[in-house]
Amino acid sequence: xxxxxxxxxxxxxxxxxxxxxxxxxxxxxxxxxxxxxxxxxxxxxxxxxxxxxxxxxxxxxxxxxxxxxxxxxxxxxxxxxxxxxxxxxxxxxxxxxxxxxxxxxxxxxxxxxxxxxxxxxxxxxxxxxxxxxxxxxxxxxxxxxxxxxxxxxxxxxxxxxxxxxxxxxxxxxxxxxxxxxxxxxxxxxxxxxxxxxxxxxxxxxxxxxxxxxxxxxxxxxxxxxxxxxxxxxxxxxxxxxxxxxxxxxxxxxxxxxxxxxxxxxxxxxxxxxxxxxxxxxxxxxxxxxxxxxxxxxxxxxxxxxxxxxxxxxxxxxxxxxxxxxxxxxxxxxxxxxxxxxxxxxxxxxxxxxxxxxxxxxxxxxxxxxxxxxxxxxxxxxxxxxxxxxxxxxxxxxxxxxxxxxxxxxxxxxxxxxxxxxxxxxxxxxxxxxxxxxxxxxxxxxxxxxxxxxxxxxxxxxxxxxxxxxxxxxxxxxxxxxxxxxxxxxxxxxxxxxxxxxxxxxxxxxxxxxxxxxxxxxxxxxxxxxxxxxxxxxxxxxxxxxxxxxxxxxxxxxxxxxxxxxxxxxxxxxxxxx
Length: 577
Known about the structure:
- This protein is α+β, with helices and mostly antiparallel strands.
- The protein is built from 22 helices and 15 strands.
- Helix 6 crosses helix 7.
């Protein structure tokens, strides 16, 4: 399974070919409708708008204009007439908003990707929506761009004294002077919009999705780094942010790496640590993969290998297992490894030793397997039984010399995930403790049960994979059939077949490329828990077909026993009172 470097626009391996449109069209192909209105000065409603104008543009070209006076059917205050020049007589013969709105909505059109633009959009769009609401008319749902907010991000106070339309229009050399008439102001806003887009383009804002967050606060130094995404392919894979000393700062994965990487340079990225990482990075490297699964597995492996400081999962975790000793009188112990030849009678892995200890103590209490760590002779040597025997938690083989066959079988069954005996005993103990008002001890018992159940659930998911030398499976996806080859839980290869290909034949060919492998010495020698989780999640989806399994009886074990457990809530003293 070897990923390949790809450049932007090149197709991914196999037949998976995501489109660049996934992150929106380039701004040169986006249709903008720049809107301006004039009002009576009243709040939004049926009787406030006196004039509506809109200019439709794309790629710097004007596609159409809409302009009309509106009879507000209400008096126009004198100060508004002085400001706009719109008089009562001018609107006397104009259509009311109820007649104008259908034509205006038709001008906007049905394209959901059209972007509405206004200078102080909250005012203009707010009045239009208010009028629609009063008329019981639906205003078109479109993304809205506010040139006031964008201007604050692109023009400094050294360039403009304020962010009024007249000031900005003069600063950018607009061909139309704002006059507080709707069409003039809309035309001036078009020139302002184009000037803003020119400036934002230099900061990496080049596509539709970029513009949606361009008004939010993002340091200029970060936006200037958007070019680091230029050579990242729009395909599944793993991307790496590289620092000035060639160190790997951060590793991530995505179904569309180009789209994902670009978001790191926009306001969509809110994490402080990741923002710091982006400021340090000098380049981005990408590994294109055939499938999402392959990308996720590579991410896990690379993080484990390089331990990037900005990945939260980069710290290596110690794993703990509950295993059986091979002594004459076996006992449970906590080990750092799980021998492969005993993988059917281990429980884990646990990330914390104290959690493993809690589960071990619970199993010992229920199964009565000996818990002392002394090496016992085959024959009793006259020693006295310890206090554990007195508490009826051990059958004292050190005194009786009796083999622990029954206790051992119960322990093996519990380790194998058959936890009914554990559940019954633990529930009873919790109930007794809670009934006696010993809530803290009841909660401790619950925590012991939780430690066992979560480990049993994980074991049921990953241990069967570790026992299969070979698993070949295929999943039908929208873009074709994904085929995977797995050995002892390790992903060897993935590929994508078209719907017309012979999937079983291709799967057989892929499988033959990988000779049979010897079993690992211990459970996690070749593969991590995170990779096993990914394989498990992929395999047990309803659209997956198992084509070849070396040990099908292992995968046929009952997987849901631990998963069905719901831990009880322990009442507190406050609840009782």
